[in-house]
Design brief:
With about 230 residues, the protein is α/β, with parallel strands linked by helices. It has one domain: Spore Coat Polysaccharide Biosynthesis Protein SpsA, Chain A (Alpha-Beta Complex). The chain contains seven helices and eleven strands. The protein has a seven-stranded mixed beta sheet with strand order 5-4-1-6-10-7-11, with helices on both faces. Strands 2-3 form a two-stranded antiparallel sheet. Strands 8-9 form a two-stranded antiparallel sheet. The structure holds cytidine-5'-triphosphate and the ligand C[C@](O)(CO)[C@H](O)COP(=O)(O)O. The site of cytidine-5'-triphosphate (CTP) has 21 residues, from helix 3. Pathway: Isoprenoid biosynthesis; isopentenyl diphosphate biosynthesis via DXP pathway; isopentenyl diphosphate from 1-deoxy-D-xylulose 5-phosphate: step 2/6. This is 2-C-methyl-D-erythritol 4-phosphate cytidylyltransferase. Belongs to the IspD/TarI cytidylyltransferase family. IspD subfamily. Catalyzes the formation of 4-diphosphocytidyl-2-C-methyl-D-erythritol from CTP and 2-C-methyl-D-erythritol 4-phosphate (MEP). GO terms for molecular function: nucleotidyltransferase activity.
Length: about 230
């Protein structure tokens, strides 16, 4: 399999409330972004890693992540956009044209495990579009603007979607281009493929594959790493 990995790290980390972008904050002494890079670097099917960073942070990322730690695979840095979707688009169009599959991952999800990525890659070979996800543990309510409950969807059909999300290269580029043309902005990449009428397969991921969003997430991630439960 010839796979390119795109890791998006060009967000602002507003909800973290820190002066430094959360993907460069340390967990157990190393930047958040280091961990997923390392995991993808260890997967043989992956031939290159494209990291999407904001223009102002390109030098910082190069010095403090890419050069500081040793990665075996070529790592390309490309500029991000004002929304996650635009950052992903710039990442995927900068992958090698001969790659068949692209795996898209949030740089803010450091705890992704190699075995889980491999499972998603294998399924992508069969289904062309897959997302990792976990069944939700809470009861989910749909509410109106005033927070009154409208309905309670059956939990057995509700999954919390994570990254990586894995696609055939041509399909995901086409899906992003269509969204751009239509002015559609989604909160993940599968929704862009769903809009084209394709079926997307959800593959069971890992509850520990959290997205670092607010300060307590750093504590949880560090606890997982320090207790060596990954
Ligand atoms: N314009 C953007 C926005 C987000 N991301 C990346 O997308 C992932 C998930 O986004 P999120 O957690 O929302 O990150 P931020 O946008 O940084 O956070 P916030 O919404 O709190 O500002 C992160 O790895 C983030 O760096 C990106 O590459 N480009
Ligand atoms: C893509 C994603 O990780 C799926 O859960 C997530 O939607 C991206 O983060 P955001 O907080 O919604 O921007």
């Amino acid at each position: 399999m010839n796979v390119s990995a795109v890791i998006v790290a060009a967000g602002k980390g507003i909800r973290m409330g820190h002066t430094v972008n959360k993907v460069y904050l340390p967990i157990a002494g190393k930047p958040v972004l280091y961990y997923s890079l390392k995991t993808f670097d260890e997967i043989d099917w992956i031939k290159e890693i494209v990291v999407v960073v904001s223009k102002e942070e390109i030098e910082y990322c190069k010095e403090n992540v890419i050069k500081r730690y040793f990665f075996k695979k070529p790592v390309k840095l490309v500029e991000g956009g004002s929304e996650r979707q635009y950052s992903v688009y710039n990442g995927i169009i900068n992958t090698e044209r001969n790659c068949e599959i692209i795996t898209i991952h949030d740089g803010a999800r450091p705890l992704i495990e190699k075995e889980v990525v491999l499972k998603a890659l294998k399924e992508a070979y069969l289904y062309k579009a897959v997302a990792l996800g976990v069944p939700v543990k809470d009861t989910i309510k749909v509410v109106d603007e005033k927070n009154f409950i409208l309905n309670t969807p059956d939990r057995k059909y509700l999954w919390a979607i994570q990254t990586p999300q894995v696609f055939e290269r041509n399909l995901i580029i086409k899906a992003h281009q269509k969204a751009l043309e239509d002015g559609f902005l989604g909160t993940d990449d599968t929704v862009l493929v769903e809009r084209l009428g394709y079926k997307v397969k959800v593959v069971e991921g890992d509850y520990r594959n959290i997205k670092i969003t607010t300060p307590e997430d750093l504590i949880v991630a560090e606890a997982f790493l320090k207790n060596n439960v990954l």
